[in-house]
Specification:
The protein has 242 residues and is α/β, with parallel strands linked by helices. It has helices spanning 34-43, 58-66, 86-101, 120-132, 189-195, 219-230, 232-241, and strands at 8-13, 28-29, 32-33, 48-54, 107-110, 137-144, 149-151, 157-159, 176-179, 185-188, 203-207. The longest helix has 16 residues, at 86-101. The radius of gyration is 19 Å and the shape is globular. The mean pLDDT is 95.
């Protein structure tokens, strides 16, 4: 029996509304719109079948098309408000692609525009892990401090994942990780639709460098990301020498 060829659909979510960094998807990041970096990167990736930008903004759609992405449909308003889940918009998009274009990818790759320091290697590493394991989802994480604290309404600090009697030596704690603005999510389409979530019951992760894991969520992140991006080659070379 002939094996089915994998069809990976790259979806780039790009909602117009952004409170902390207004219009961030089309905002100029070192000479071109932020969204352009993710589009150009995906178009260079041979494992990707199609690149679609999922947006509710005609202006973002025009920018996306100018840089080579597809925008077959605009995201409905009900999937574009502050409380809407990106996964619901993606499932809606997949339904339209199947119904109107007879297109049904085997995998969906979700790439956030807010990770300009993502590299093609990160995408390839995720796909390689997907191929060699039974994962339904593969995503990226970066290391973080293993002691997790919460703060209550009275600004009391509360250790959430251990005891203050434990050693303060990081090596004595189990390694901890956080989603890194998610450089990359790859999920099997069937699992995504069945579980209605990108992080499925069978999720594995690829560890990325902490310094590249800047997520553009507020102005300070943007300023830091520009500095890191401009100096990324020097930083990478310097790290290897330490």
């Amino acid at each position: 029996m002939k094996a089915t060829r994998n069809k990976i659909l790259a979806i780039i979510p790009a909602r117009a509304g952004s409170k902390r960094i207004p219009n961030k998807n089309k905002k100029n990041f070192l000479g071109k719109p932020l969204i352009a970096y993710t589009i150009e990167q995906t178009l260079k990736c041979p494992i990707i079948d199609r690149v679609i930008v999922d947006t509710d903004s005609p202006e973002i759609a025009e920018i996306a098309k100018r840089y080579g992405a597809e925008v077959p449909f605009l995201r409905p308003a009900k999937f574009a408000n502050d409380k809407a889940r990106v996964v619901d918009s993606i499932i809606h998009l997949l339904g339209r692609l199947k119904k109107e274009q007879k297109y049904n990818p085997t995998h969906v790759m979700i790439l956030q525009t807010t990770s300009p320091l993502r590299e093609l290697k990160d995408i390839n590493d995720c796909w390689n892990l997907m191929k060699k394991t039974d994962a339904d989802t593969v995503l990226t994480v970066c290391p973080t401090h293993p002691r997790l604290y919460y703060m209550d309404a009275k600004q009391n600090i509360i250790l959430a994942n251990g005891s203050e009697k434990q050693s303060t030596n990081m090596q004595a704690w189990r390694p901890a990780y956080i989603l890194n603005g998610c450089f990359v999510y790859i999920v099997k389409t069937k699992a995504l639709i069945k579980e209605k979530g990108v992080i499925t019951k069978n999720t594995k992760a690829v560890i990325c460098e902490k310094w590249r894991s800047v997520d553009l969520d507020e102005p300070g992140d943007w300023a830091l990301a520009e500095l890191l991006y401009k100096n990324r080659k020097n930083i990478s070379a310097r790290i290897k020498k330490i």
